[in-house]
Amino acid sequence: MKNKLIAVLLVMAILLTQLGVFAFDDMAEERLSWAVEAVETMAEKGIIKGYEDGTFRPDKEITKEEALILMSRICGFTDESSEKYKDLATNIYGEFISSKYDTPYINEISFLIYRGVIKTSDLEQYIADETRTQPLKRYEAAMLITKLMGAEDDLSEAELTYDDEAAIPEESKPYVAYVTEAELMNGMGENRFEPMTSLTRAQVATLLYRAMNKLDFTYLTCVLESYNTGNDIATVKVGETQEKYVITADIPVALDGNYAMLADIPVGAEIRITFKGEDISFVDAITPEHKATVSLIFVEYEKLMDAVVVMFKEVDGSEEFRYSLADSPVITRNGAKTEIASLRENDLATVEIVGEKVTRIDAESPQKSGEGVIVALHFESSFSIVISEDGETTTYKVADDVKVIRNAQIIELADLRIGDKVKIETKYNVIEKITATSKNRTATGTIKEIVISAEPKITVDEDGIEKEYALLNSVEVKLGGEKVDVYALRLGDTVNVTIEGETVTKIAVTPAKENINFAGKIEYINTAYGYIKLEGVEERIEIGKAKFQNSAGKTITIKDVKQGDEATVFGSKGIGTVAAELIVVNK
After folding, report:
1. Using one digit for the tens of pLDDT, what is the confidence trace for 191-246?
2. Residues of 336-364 as b/e, b for ≥16 C-beta within 10 angstroms?
3. Closest by Cα among 534, 537, 486, 522 to 507
4. pLDDT class for 379, splitting at 50, 70, 90?
5. Is 127 within 8 Å of 109 (Cβ atoms)?
6. What is the mean predicted confidence (pLDDT) over 2-16?
7. In whole angstroms, what is the distance from residue 461 CA to residue 467 CA?
């Protein structure tokens, strides 16, 4: 159909030209006869456009940005089948483009990147503020057309015979060699390529017209029914007709904008096949909105006359389900590819359902064992444990009747510690038994950070090395042998911590010394308990180790101090108190 359309357009363009009728008023000049066919055809297809005054302006230089827009249209941007893929491309690349470049053509450029013609790293050269309005030079056109043709990865060492070869930028020479050999671009007379010459709109129209005819893109939108990885045959449905195509692994496939394998596309999904002439050059698809992935228990399967029916039930056994199996489903058990007959009753299965058909089953044995290190414990409505194994973390639910053994003793779940090494036994990914081992030790250092939250932490400087530990919610904190609240801890305090696994369970604290001084009138003196109180000072001032002096610097005793005397206290701050070292009394 596409070939017929092009043929009709060509005939129309030729007839109109012969009759002296042109789509654009300024294309009638004899000197432009070489470009008329290209311009007329490209205009008919909506790839290149004129101006509101009915002119094409063939001699106007084309900018780098305009060249990208025309290339996106060659790649199918204006094709009706591209609508959903245009939106997908903009969703993926649009934010990046708009954050870095001031261009109104975000959709077209996103689509060009999505189709793999250019990379995001190419954009600076073509749509940056200082480049996008620059005229496109011939060597740059050679590079872009090579990318458009999908030939960039197959370039060989350049063999050029142009007399001005030395003027061609080195990095573009393989591209120039390609477009010359492919007869996409010619010299400019006298065997010169003229790499730095700017291209006009008429020249670009002709160049892209040649590329379009060589590419000969057509599109087929269909539904994937099956894909046989053994012989690369894809069975698709076009309307009510079933067709088969060979789609090998070297053909680019995009699923949701990411490169994938055709086997990754769910059966029943709508796909679009791009043909380059008679050959398939690209396949893209978007995951259907009605696709569902659920965890179920495999029960059995049944072969019927024209289908295979698979039975599942909910993990709790409350409800059963029956689904038809797709023609070419992907089935694995314990990570290995297999057939439906190899699944076992009560296997835990992750089931992918498209429409009413099962397209993928990833099954595993209901009972499994594993080991790792506890990195988090969650005590919400249902208890869960996060375990790290070989750098990967997994969150497990825990059975109500779980059996927990730690260091050979039966314990409660709450007695597990972050940092414990554990071996677990699960059924349907729920832990039924935990065997934990923990090394207990002590360490001394200074507090660098305390985080009081749902998952509290403490950082201790141990001989110049900062180590972060989980902090037990019910951590025992003692100051001078007396229990205190965790909120009494201060940065800089010296602590001796007891560590189980990687969790601090006990803290013996020596407060950090903070030198301070107070001045004020003595409110009262308590020699029996060894403290005084200054007016306006909240802290109690302990005087047990203090020296007393008068304002002349003479040593005095506590007996010489009276209520109402003015005093200046020098000492160090504790928790709610000040340990006085020197008290100067003004009589």
Report:
1. 999 999 999 999 999 999 999 999 999 999 998 888 888 889 998 989 888 899 99
2. eeeebeebeeebbbebbbbbebbbbbbbb
3. 486
4. confident
5. yes
6. 43
7. 6
Q: What is the pLDDT of residue 88?
A: 93
Q: Two tokens at 220?
A: 């087929």
Q: Which residues pair with 242 in a beta bridge?
A: 237
Helix and strand numbers (H, E) in the chain are 9, 32
Selection from 396, 394, 390, 391 nearest residue 413 by Cα: 396
SS3 content of the chain, % helix, strand, coil (to 5): 25, 40, 35
pLDDT at 387 over 60: yes
* Mean pLDDT of the chain, nearest integer: 89
Tell me the domains of the chain and their CATH numbers: 2-215 (no CATH), 217-285 (2.40.50.100), 291-364 (2.40.50), 367-437 (2.40.50.140), 440-510 (2.40.50.140), 514-586 (2.40.50.320)
In contact, 168 and 139? CB cutoff 8 Å: yes
What would the pLDDT profile of 444-495 be if each residue is shown by its tens digit?
999 999 888 878 899 999 999 999 999 998 899 998 788 988 887 878 888 9
Pairing between β-strand 392-406 and β-strand 409-410 as defined by DSSP bridges: antiparallel
User: 501-524 burial by CB neighbour count: b if 16+ within 10 A, else e?
Assistant: bbbbbbbbbebeeeeeebeeebee
Residue type (1 letter), 186: N
DSSP 163-183: TTGGGS-GGGHHHHHHHHHTT
The model's pTM is 0.53
Q: What is the CA radius of gyration of the chain?
A: 40
Only one residue has tokens 């010489």, namely 560
- Per-residue pLDDT tens digits for 331-342: 999 999 999 999
Residue type at position 403: K
- Contacts for 76 with CB less than 8 Å, ≥ 6 apart: 82, 115, 217, 219, 274
Question: First-to-last CA distance in the chain?
Answer: 113
Question: CA nearest 503: which of 372, 376, 380?
Answer: 376
3-state SS of 125-147? HHHCCCCCCCECEHHHHHHHHHH
| pLDDT on residue 328 | 81
Closest CA to 332 of 345, 320, 346, 348: 348
As a whole number, mean pLDDT of residues 10-32 equals: 63
DSSP 376-403: EEE-SSS-EEEEEETTEEEEEEEEEEEE
> In sequence order, what DSSP letters do the residues of 287-330 get, joined into one string?
--TTEEEEEEEEEEEEE-SS-EEEEEE-TTSS-EEEEEEEEEEE
Helix 201-215 / helix 33-44 crossing angle, nearest 10 deg: 60
